[in-house]
Amino acid sequence: MSLTRNVLFTAALLPLLAQAEVQVVDSSAQLGGYANNAYGNNTAYAGGPATAPSAQGGLFLQLQQMEQELTRLRGMVEEQQYKIQQLERDSKERYDDLNSRLGSGASVAPAQAGSGAVDASQAPTPPVAQQPAPAANAAPADPEKEKLYYEAAFDLIKNKDFDNAVKAFNAFLRKYPQSAYAGNAQYWLGEVHLAQGNLQEAGKAFALVNQNYASHAKVSDALYKLGVVEQRLGNADKARTIFQQVAAQYPSSSAAGLAKRELGQ
Fold first, then answer.
1. Cα 152 from chain centroid (whole Å)
2. Residue 124 and residue 120: Cα distance in Å, rounded?
3. Which residues fall within 8 angstroms of residue 243, CB to CB, at 6 or more apart?
4. Are 128 and 216 in contact (CB under 8 A)?
5. Backbone angles phi, psi at 26, to 5 degrees
6. Alpha carbon distance 91, 6 (integer Å)
7. Chain centroid to CA 191: how far?
8. Which residues contact 179 (CB under 8 A, 6 or more apart)?
9. Of the residues 153, 177, 236, 262, which has the maximum number of CB atoms within 10 A of its CB?
10. What φ, ψ does residue 108 adopt, rounded to 5°?
């Protein structure tokens, strides 16, 4: 907003500055012409004292005032141009910094085999899913507030603040267990635990996606990741069973393709 105001102020000053310059030039020409007529002939003062007409004095004062105003306007324009350039530099630096931090936060896709990294490059838009019964301390539905709460928790993943992300998602799920964002929050809670190497907690979180949000779009990904967790825990038979379930129940999903690859290996 400050940059816009400075640009508008400078744009408004420029026509005034140009008009002032034209007036100064015109006034200078008039004064110059008068001076030639008044002082060009030495005999004009041969017979009496040299007294300048009042019109000349008034024009001279007017010219001085206009020159002073012109100088002031030029200074204001230069000052505003400097501020605009400084704001543009600051805005670009903030953008580059934000872009760099977000870029460094993007990692392997959440469904990639064997990966515990969290992909925070794409904030999912969760569909309305089958929800569990409301908890005793659940807050009344408030879609706008739920969205802000969920996005704030998700931003912690982007910043790789995993400890606080776990706290934020757990708090969100306690407060809004029936939210349209709850299924996604449960899934990303599992991803954060997996990224931290907390396999037991990751397995619980992924299992709850299927248990509490059975119709949610993230169920296939959560089941696949549950198979990955079991695989890492050394439970090869459990992992194979889960991969077979993903491939059979969600054949057109990307998770099914990855599950089939694991089964082939």
1. 13
2. 9
3. 224, 227, 259, 260, 262, 263
4. no
5. -60, -45
6. 14
7. 24
8. 131, 141, 143, 146, 150, 172, 185
9. 153
10. -65, 145
Burial call 182-211: b when 16+ CB within 10 Å, e when fewer: bbbbbbbbbbbbbbbebbebbbbbbbbbbe
Residue carrying structure tokens 């907690």: 201
* Rounded Cα–Cα distance for residues 67 and 213 (Å): 76
Structure tokens at 168: 């934020």
Contacts 24+ apart (CB under 8 A), 160-164: 160/105, 162/118, 162/192, 162/195, 162/196
Q: Which of 162, 141, 144 is nearest to 153 (CA)?
A: 162
pLDDT for 12 equals: 60
How confident is the prediction along the chain (265 residues), in pLDDT tens digits per residue?
555 555 555 556 566 555 655 554 455 555 454 444 433 444 433 444 445 456 777 787 888 788 788 788 877 877 777 767 666 665 555 545 544 544 444 333 333 333 444 554 444 444 434 444 444 456 667 889 999 999 999 999 999 999 999 999 999 999 999 999 999 999 999 999 999 999 999 999 999 999 999 999 999 999 999 999 999 999 999 999 999 999 999 999 999 999 999 998 7
d(CA 148, CA 146): 5
Q: How many CB atoms lie within 10 A of CB 129?
A: 22
